[in-house]
Amino acid sequence: xxxxxxxxxxxxPADAMxxxxxxxxxxxxxxxxxxxxxFLAAGCPKADDIVQSADELFNNxxxxxxxxxxxxxxxxxxxxxxxxxxxxxxxxxGGPDSPRPNLIEDGESEHGRGLRTVAATxxxxxxxxxxxxxxxxxxxxx
Length: 142
Description:
Elements: E1 17-24, H1 30-41, H2 47-64, E2 73-81, E3 85-91, H3 114-121, E4 124-130, E5 133-140
Antiparallel strand pairs: 1-2, 2-3, 3-5, 4-5
């Protein structure tokens, strides 16, 4: 089940600048992910939202997928194009569950808000893949 068809909200141009980097699937790498995204999103009106969303998606990958196992990796991709638009994509190594926002608002819960935050700040978001690996993408446009 895919949350959103990314091809139309807004489309990511084929000539968008693209950067990719892999990070170890360890919690201490979250800081390096934020620095990587912050550098590439500099000057964008939604730069803070982009960094926060990347942090949420990275942490979800290491919390809920095989990326947290020894030798696990998370691939982070940033695409940027005219009009200060940015797309981030986080690719994990798969796991038993599909990415989905927590639909029940529980003020006591420490978990379940990450994808809700991404959905609230991104122009669009979605995912594709299966239990062998998934990519979650968030697009930040106008």
